[in-house]
Amino acid sequence: MGITPKERFLMAAKGEKANQAERDAGAKNLQNWLAENPSRGNLKHGAYSHSIRHRYGDKRYREGRQLDLIMKGLRKDFGDNGGIPMAAEILLDSIKSKIVVILQIGKYVDRQIELIDQKTGELLPCLGRNFTSYTESLRRDLEALTAMTSKKPSRVPSIQDIISKGEE
């Protein structure tokens, strides 16, 4: 009797490598894909795959509704008049793509049995540099966006104005 899918999942979660039969099956699947796509196409995976982009772009899916709610909240910070500056629009697009990646990493981590490798004591690789760099970049973008939305005084008071107020 072969390995069940649940056993394969547990082995993969522990970092065990695929056996020769599984490697051969993967190579065969790749060859079948190459036969169907002679131009070699654009084999995308992860956050850039068609299925991920579709789920986050379609509000019928939970991921699409979640992303739409986040983006509507950010746009609402500019007010409902629709006068969002172009720099803010570019930042919002950048923020959107980073949020998708961070949500995907979170979804992957939720499926894992352990977050720390028992052999090495290290965090999962995706939680190391990738997650940290994306969240830090998102934080900087949100900081810049917040600076654009903050209300600035129409006229900066002069030193004379400050002194005259202090004398009154």
Describe this structure in words.
This protein is mainly alpha-helical and about 170 residues long. The protein has a domain at about 45-150. Helix content is about 60%, strand content about 0%. The protein has seven helices and no strands. Helix 5 packs antiparallel against helix 6. The chain is elongated. It starts with a helix and ends with a helix. The model has no long low-confidence stretch (mean pLDDT about 80).
Draw up the topology in text.
Blueprint (H helix, E strand, L loop, with lengths): L4 H9 L6 H17 L13 H8 L4 H15 L9 H26 L17 H21 L9 H9 L1
Helix pairs in contact: 3-4, 4-5, 5-6
Strand content: under 5%
Mean pLDDT: 78
The chain-level structural class is mainly alpha
Radius of gyration: 25 Å
* Gross morphology: elongated
Low-confidence spans = none
Taking the alpha carbons of the first and last residues, their distance comes to: 92 Å
Number of strands: 0
Residues in helix, %: 55-70%
In N-to-C order, the SSE pattern is HHHHHHH
Instruction: Summarize the main sheet.
Output: none
- Work out the helix count: 7
In short:
This protein has 168 residues and is mainly α.
Throw out a few tags for this protein:
0% strand; mainly alpha; 168 residues; single chain
